[in-house]
Amino acid sequence: MCPLRVAVVFGTRPDAVKMAPVMLELARDARFECVPIATGQHREMMDEVLALFGIVPEHDLAVMTEGQTLTDVTTRVLERLGPVLGDVRPDVVLVHGDTTTSSAAALASYYKKIPVGHVEAGLRTDTIYEPFPEEMNRRLTGVLATHHFAPTPTARENLLREGKDPRTIVVTGNTVIDAFLWVHARTTPSDVPAVGTERMVFVEAHRRENLGEPLEAICRALRGVVKRHPDVSVIWPVHLNPAVVEPARRILEDEPRVHLVKPMSYRNLVGAIGRCTLVATDSGGLQEEAPCLGKPVLVLRRVTERPEGVAAGTLRLVGTQEAAVASALDELLDDPAAYARMAHAANPYGDGQAARRIADALWAFHRNGALPDEFDPSRPPTLPSAAL
């Protein structure tokens, strides 16, 4: 029987991180021929992740340009991916999550009548503009997809409410857990930032909907917290967007225990999460990654597409108001019982076996094999081996 040819399309660092375990799993399984395709929606940050996992794209669309808009990215992916798919002739195309690369690649595959598998399918918020443009990207991709690899039972329920055929959905867990635990097992002391204090708050804030006053309020809250807690430092890998850099520097640069650093490599980010006391973020992936290591996560957004973490107690949705952010940080830093409740909550997002389940499900869908056992958050996790 011929190997199943699977094109894996990715374009940003989060894409690359979450698809790396899938590409490695497919590459070492004789049932598959894996064809990695990078759109280059992001450049240096994506390339660093590919080097970390030892992945070399067979095709690179190089769509990134300075000052690119969402329309620019969408148009170039459509224009450049179509001919590549015509040459590769995959049996199925895998895309990930909620990036513009993913929705455009799914549309390009649809135009070629190639089935699409959506990894991290079924995440939803209650508004198409939060997060923007990710919420619409993932919804559009879900409409175009043939196979839906839902990370959690809640994500599956979202897909069923939208009318997806239950036979097309497999609950796999999230591949980011596979990737995060694999990298964490390989971090060394040199990967961990030194901040000179016993406790550290790790911060990521850059979402479009938080630019302006919400981001300034977050900065003011962080400034107040370090002033009230002399044993606490903040480390913030600041996004390169000038709309993030300017308020962060203006409000926080003079605080000696606030470290505004350049965007970190993924290895260093994993090391920093392992070292930190807690995480405050508007990022999506960190809501799943940090609880792997028992780190409480304060979500700097009004809504989250990851309600499982809120229900489990690993996440707390705090918004962006200065008083609310400061109060939530103070509580976790001052109240050991409140901290322990979040730190000891079970992570509902994966068990390190998502990539294997996706591979087995693809084979089942296309070669009539047996579907894998699905991820069950109530079962104790089986962590991945040292060789992903």
Structural commentary:
With 388 residues, the protein is α/β, with parallel strands linked by helices. It is 43% helix and 15% strand. It folds into two domains: 4-174 and 350-367, Glycogen Phosphorylase B (Rossmann fold, 3-Layer(aba) Sandwich), CATH 3.40.50; 195-343, 3-Layer(aba) Sandwich (Rossmann fold), CATH 3.40.50. 50% of the residues are buried.
Shape: globular
For the biggest sheet, the summary is: 7 strands, parallel
Amino-to-carboxy terminus distance: 26 Å
Query: Low-confidence parts, pLDDT < 50 over ≥5 residues?
Result: 382-388
Summarize it.
With 388 residues, the protein is α/β, with parallel strands linked by helices. It has 2 domains: 4-174 and 350-367, Rossmann fold; 195-343, Glycogen Phosphorylase B (Rossmann fold, 3-Layer(aba) Sandwich).
What does the secondary structure layout of this molecule look like, with pairings?
Elements lengths: L3 E7 L2 H15 L4 E7 L5 H10 L5 E2 L9 H19 L3 E5 L3 H12 L4 E4 L14 H11 L2 E4 L2 H9 L7 E3 L3 H10 L14 E6 L8 H16 L3 E6 L4 H11 L5 E4 L4 H10 L2 E4 L4 H4 L7 E3 L7 H6 L2 E3 L4 H13 L1 H8 L10 H14 L21
Parallel strand pairs: 1-2, 1-4, 2-3, 4-5, 5-6, 6-7, 8-9, 8-11, 9-10, 11-12, 12-13
